[in-house]
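Morning run. Coffee first, then this:
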Amino acid sequence: MMEIAENLDRAELTALERDEHIAEWILLADKQDGVLSQVTTKLSSRGRDGEGRPESGVRLAARELGIDKDDAHRAAKVAGLSDEAKAVAKESEFDDNCSILLKAAKATDDVAFLRAEHDRREAERNRKEAEKFNRDTNGVIALTVADEFAEWIMGRTDLHELPTIISWIQGSKQKDVIAALRKRAA
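And here it is:
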């Protein structure tokens, strides 16, 4: 337990590593509690905590570690992930994401959940990169198209009509102009 306490004090633990240490503490506290409750039961009809029943390993660990009981329960669930799921979590860099680890622990197939979540996040990251690229590229293309369109308009209209055309373009949405052009062409 002293070794676990020292490890928990280190700041470089991932969430998964921290939860594994807390779960180990809970197991040790359960074993310790079992031995102590047998002794105290013989000495008194009351439990160790003076409330009529001994503290569970989770409650005892939470109290001794100074963490919330719910955090201790979560740690026990996350530490219960399969070894393969823990490996996938580390590969996918989810080993420091408490919410993903807990969702994986609650999933029917923890490995499949983590792989699917990794794939989903990778696809989202790729989509955002593509959107950014398209925005940057479309900005350049849009300027080129705008220049060509302006040149085309200037070649077909009189200069005195230009303010009217500009006001029409400013007062319209691109999609409305396109819809009107398609309607007239049909």
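Residues 35-50 have pLDDT under 50 and may be disordered. Good start to the day.
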